[in-house]
């Protein structure tokens, strides 16, 4: 089956993302990348746990002074919901419904954007209200590296999905772009996986002390 | 993936079957999502309610986090489907290295 072939609902396969050799390779390669990302984030978590609350003097804010439950809760709900909306997008992709897939991807991007803006507000708040910056303490460096790396992943994911949506807006679905959409949605779920550990280990455990 | 294609000789029947299959999968995913929201709520409430000791809360919320990640990986990222042996190998290898790193850092680093 040629990747660029015009497809119809009748000819659209059950697993369009793995129909071509290129699609299969993308799928495999991307999971290898996610394995590497796991190691990357685990090392950042390890660094954070080792340097948590390590500040040079008593005036510096600690985790329990900084974090507030409501803000983290809203951020978590935004990202968790965006994970579901990208599941919806892949559901419509498998049913060969390009318009609905684009719609749900668009909603995913908006939710991700809201998350990112909230994080920018949060960092800004820590810097200006608490003097908690990247260079103010080892705790600050470890915190901004871990959470910032995640935020960077969100920003990259937003650009990636938006680019895919724009690039393929007139093409419709085919076996050439189905793996691209599928892999981008895997990436988006992985961002949520990392966030589950961030809100648990950094924020919730930070508030417990 | 010819093996995953149903072949009744009638494309309409095949489409109906597949639609039913994906609707069923969608239902599982909605249930996963509801459970994930619920687990998140429980974790936040456990921390917000100040009656528990941290010796209980920390392992408890970590466990909730792990359960949630399993839902995310196996349902949202389809690791429960066939053909995910290599992804599982990659992910668990990464996790093994990562967990050893975390163990090392929390036990042998002190400043």
From TrEMBL, chain A:
<keyword id="KW-1003">Cell membrane</keyword>
<comment type="similarity">
    <text>Belongs to the cytochrome c oxidase subunit 3 family.</text>
</comment>
<feature type="transmembrane region" description="Helical">
    <location>
        <begin position="186"/>
        <end position="206"/>
    </location>
</feature>
<keyword id="KW-1133">Transmembrane helix</keyword>
<dbReference type="InterPro" id="IPR024791">
    <property type="entry name" value="Cyt_c/ubiquinol_Oxase_su3"/>
</dbReference>
<feature type="domain" description="Heme-copper oxidase subunit III family profile">
    <location>
        <begin position="28"/>
        <end position="207"/>
    </location>
</feature>
<dbReference type="InterPro" id="IPR033946">
    <property type="entry name" value="Ubiquinol_oxase_su3_dom"/>
</dbReference>
<keyword id="KW-0472">Membrane</keyword>
<dbReference type="Pfam" id="PF00510">
    <property type="entry name" value="COX3"/>
</dbReference>
<dbReference type="InterPro" id="IPR035973">
    <property type="entry name" value="Cyt_c_oxidase_su3-like_sf"/>
</dbReference>
<feature type="transmembrane region" description="Helical">
    <location>
        <begin position="71"/>
        <end position="91"/>
    </location>
</feature>
<protein>
    <submittedName>
        <fullName>Cytochrome (Ubi)quinol oxidase subunit III</fullName>
    </submittedName>
</protein>
<dbReference type="InterPro" id="IPR000298">
    <property type="entry name" value="Cyt_c_oxidase-like_su3"/>
</dbReference>
<keyword id="KW-0812">Transmembrane</keyword>
<dbReference type="InterPro" id="IPR013833">
    <property type="entry name" value="Cyt_c_oxidase_su3_a-hlx"/>
</dbReference>
<feature type="transmembrane region" description="Helical">
    <location>
        <begin position="28"/>
        <end position="51"/>
    </location>
</feature>
<feature type="transmembrane region" description="Helical">
    <location>
        <begin position="141"/>
        <end position="166"/>
    </location>
</feature>
<feature type="transmembrane region" description="Helical">
    <location>
        <begin position="103"/>
        <end position="121"/>
    </location>
</feature>
UniProtKB/TrEMBL annotation, chain B:
<keyword id="KW-0472">Membrane</keyword>
<keyword id="KW-0812">Transmembrane</keyword>
<dbReference type="InterPro" id="IPR005171">
    <property type="entry name" value="Cyt_c_oxidase_su4_prok"/>
</dbReference>
<keyword id="KW-1133">Transmembrane helix</keyword>
<protein>
    <submittedName>
        <fullName>Cytochrome c oxidase subunit IVB</fullName>
    </submittedName>
</protein>
<dbReference type="Pfam" id="PF03626">
    <property type="entry name" value="COX4_pro"/>
</dbReference>
<keyword id="KW-1003">Cell membrane</keyword>
<dbReference type="InterPro" id="IPR014257">
    <property type="entry name" value="Cyt_c_oxidase_su4_bacillaceae"/>
</dbReference>
<feature type="transmembrane region" description="Helical">
    <location>
        <begin position="55"/>
        <end position="77"/>
    </location>
</feature>
<feature type="transmembrane region" description="Helical">
    <location>
        <begin position="89"/>
        <end position="110"/>
    </location>
</feature>
<feature type="transmembrane region" description="Helical">
    <location>
        <begin position="30"/>
        <end position="49"/>
    </location>
</feature>
């Amino acid at each position: 089956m040629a990747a660029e072939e015009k497809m119809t609902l009748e000819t659209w396969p059950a697993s369009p993302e793995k129909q071509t050799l290129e699609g299969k390779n993308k799928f495999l390669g991307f999971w290898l990348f996610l394995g590497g990302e796991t190691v990357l984030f685990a090392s950042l978590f390890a660094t954070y746990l080792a340097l948590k609350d390590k500040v040079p003097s008593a005036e510096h804010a600690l985790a329990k002074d900084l974090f507030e439950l409501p803000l983290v809760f809203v951020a978590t709900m935004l990202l968790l919901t965006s994970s579901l909306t990208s599941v919806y997008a892949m559901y419509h992709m498998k049913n060969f419904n390009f318009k609905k897939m684009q719609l749900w991807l668009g909603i995913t991007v908006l939710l991700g954007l809201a998350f990112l803006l909230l994080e920018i507000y949060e960092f800004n708040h820590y810097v200006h209200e608490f003097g908690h910056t990247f260079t103010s303490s080892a705790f600050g460096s470890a915190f901004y590296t871990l959470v910032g790396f995640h935020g960077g992943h969100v920003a990259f994911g937003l650009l990636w999905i938006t680019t895919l949506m724009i690039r393929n807006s007139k093409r419709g679905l085919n076996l050439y772009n189905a793996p691209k959409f599928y892999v981008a949605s895997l990436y988006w779920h992985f961002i949520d996986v990392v966030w589950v550990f961030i809100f648990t280990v950094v924020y919730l455990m930070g508030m417990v002390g | 993936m010819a093996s995953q294609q149903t072949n009744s000789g009638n494309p309409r029947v095949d489409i109906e079957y597949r639609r039913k299959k994906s609707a069923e999968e969608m239902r599982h995913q909605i249930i996963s999502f509801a459970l994930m929201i619920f687990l998140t709520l429980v974790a936040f409430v456990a921390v917000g309610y100040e009656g528990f000791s941290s010796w209980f809360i920390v392992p408890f919320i970590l466990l909730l986090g792990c359960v949630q990640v399993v839902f995310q990986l196996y349902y949202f990222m389809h690791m429960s489907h066939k053909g995910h042996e290599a992804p599982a190998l990659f992910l668990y290898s990464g996790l093994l290295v990562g967990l050893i790193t975390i163990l090392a850092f929390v036990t042998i680093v002190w400043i």
